[in-house]
Amino acid sequence: MAQILAILTDDPSLLRCQLHRIRGAIALKEGEPIGVGSYCDGDVLLASRPAEKGPRELASLAAGIRSPALLAASRRQAGFYDEEAIDPFRFHSWLFAMSGAVEGFDDVRGPLLEKVPPFIARQVRSVTEREHVFALFLRELHALGALDDPSLNAQQAARCLSKAIRALDALCGETGQTRPTPLAAVVTNGRSMAAVRRGRPLSYGLLEGMAACEICGLAEEARNDPRHRDHRRAKAVALLTEPAAGDGFIEVPDGSTVGVGRGLDIAIASIAP
Fold first, then answer.
1. 2: which residues sit within 8 A by CB, 6+ positions away?
2. Is-cis flag, bond preceding 88, omega within 30?
3. Residue 161 forms beta bridges with which residues?
4. What is the total count of domains within the chain?
5. What CATH number is associated with residue 103?
6. N or C terminus: which one in the chain shows less Cβ crowding within 10 Å?
7. Tally of CA atoms within 13 A in the half-sphere of 185 that contains its CB
8. What is the C-alpha to C-alpha distance for residues 237 and 5, in angstroms, rounded to an integer?
9. How many CA atoms lie within 13 A of 127 on its CB side?
10. Chunked in runs of 10, what are the mean pLDDT values of the chain (273 residues)?
């Protein structure tokens, strides 16, 4: 099962600090490749590392990065290291990661690609079901005329993700599959993020204010330090597929979407129409 971490923060300069504070909530496993997506001055940055290279500590993923959002995923990869098959996947400003496998996907792949616009289908570079589900999400954005709309709100993105999952169900149904695919998926454009949970774990955490910060060497009593005010005001929302128990994360109801807006407001809705 993949581990996915997504975080949206109101202060890009404190992204690494926010990741450090939730280090006890998730442990990226040794022996799994990692993919990381972030944003810098309007550009989307993607990096991946093989299983045997690099640390697994959360804050190390954001070393040198000032970004309003970060999406990271790790999963065991059979056979050789294939960079194109590692989440997150990217299209323009959108990043996508998913936990879950579509049963009998070989029978679904062709019909799925026929249902997305050719310019989106041409960008699908891996055979993973995850990138193909991403293509269905992009199709819904395109139908809305919002593929490159920076003002798209989180609830609209969540509805597009919900429609993509229902479209996947319909395609699977055409091949005789009656059991909905268990999955958890997250998308972000660096301004907002949305996620869906069905049959796989997914939780969210609201991170408000930091009285102290190990990353910055900031003690709680150092109130005269000018950095103290920024840390105390900093907010973020994190989404995790496998948070450790007792770390303050709240489980997203099964069969639901969650949208996190630019103001870090959280809205939960049903996948159902």
1. 73, 74, 75, 87, 97, 98, 99, 100, 241
2. yes
3. none
4. 1
5. 3.60.20.10
6. C
7. 34
8. 11
9. 5
10. 91 93 80 89 87 70 89 80 88 96 91 96 93 97 94 95 96 88 96 96 93 85 78 94 80 96 95 80
Round to whole Å and give the CA distance between 63 and 191: 21
Q: Can you give the pTM of this predicted structure?
A: 0.94
Residues 6+ apart with CB under 8 A from 54: 34, 60
The H or E element containing residue 207 is strand 203-208
Distance between CA atoms of residues 41 and 262, nearest Å? 16
Q: Where are the alpha helices (DSSP H) in the chain?
A: 15-21, 58-61, 106-114, 118-121, 129-144, 154-174, 226-233
How is residue 78 written in tokens? 């059979």
Query: Which residue range(s) make up the domain with 41?
Result: 3-270
For Cα atoms 202, 81, 79, give the angle at the middle one, nearest 5 degrees.
90
Instruction: Give CA torsion, residues 118, 189, 93, 83, to 10 deg.
Output: -80
